[in-house]
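FORM 7B - TANDEM STRUCTURE REPORT

SECTION 1: FIRST PROTEIN
SEQUENCE AND TOKENS:
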Amino acid sequence: MRRATLLGTLWFISLASVGAQAPGARIEELGWLEGRWEGDSDGMSMEEQWTSLKGGALLGLHRDVKGDRMVSFEFLRIQATAEGVVYFASPRSRPPVPFALVESSERRAVFENKQHDFPQRIIYWRDGERLCARVEGKGGEGEEWCWTKD
């Protein structure tokens, strides 16, 4: 019982340090992420898939393949929590890192965790029929990708 209480307290503290939530943001507003998205960049085949919203969560998977070899993968989850909407990133099956939804509009979402080394911000947006994402560090340096729906 103590362990569960301790874990719950640590969970709350970690979310509190993530950042302030976007006021009034609801997970239902992120349905535009749903689908299977693909793209290529410098010989790297990229794939990102988002399930439909069920049970208060969107589940995602990202995979990078170069030639015949998978070089990277990540499990993703966006979930409505008591603290607000949170993006959980689990690169290569590592423990999930929380990023709070700090900005949300019709086709754009910004998640932030200022305590994380890199990235500190994860941004998704729709550009016409493309889904784009950007990750940024402390100084705004980052990487950006766009995919088309499969």
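SECTION 2: SECOND PROTEIN
SEQUENCE AND TOKENS:
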Amino acid sequence: MLITLLKVGHITLNNASNNKTMVKALKMMLANHDISFDACDRRIMCFAHIINLCSGWVINAASNMAGDKDSNLLSSDSAVPSNPIDQACMVVQVIQASGQRRLTFNHTIINGNEEGWFTDSTSKIVKVKPL
């Protein structure tokens, strides 16, 4: 007598509603073969996809907030982009373009690490790496 064991582990999917439907259909198909499968417990949301969605929402919200403010509050230079991501990229480029600025920035990071300026939401000190 041949005994076949089939184990279904966890399935990583994004948050699309059709994936929920697919996992439920899989549960029914496996049940027809007397294979136990918990559609809720065995479905794992893709962490990278969730982070991508959330960061997109944050960027979009920050961009909309930046666009709502008076541009004079952001900068008197009209060449400075109002998108916060573009602004952050520009800041990094400006810091890296000058040895003096890079040194000053790195010194600030080192002092900040020593003084505990950088903390996360649990008040744990976060070590920030200099450029």
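SECTION 3: OBSERVATIONS ON SECOND PROTEIN
The first helix runs from residue 17 to 31.
Residues 69-76 have pLDDT under 50 and may be disordered.

SECTION 4: SIGNATURE
Preparer initials: ____
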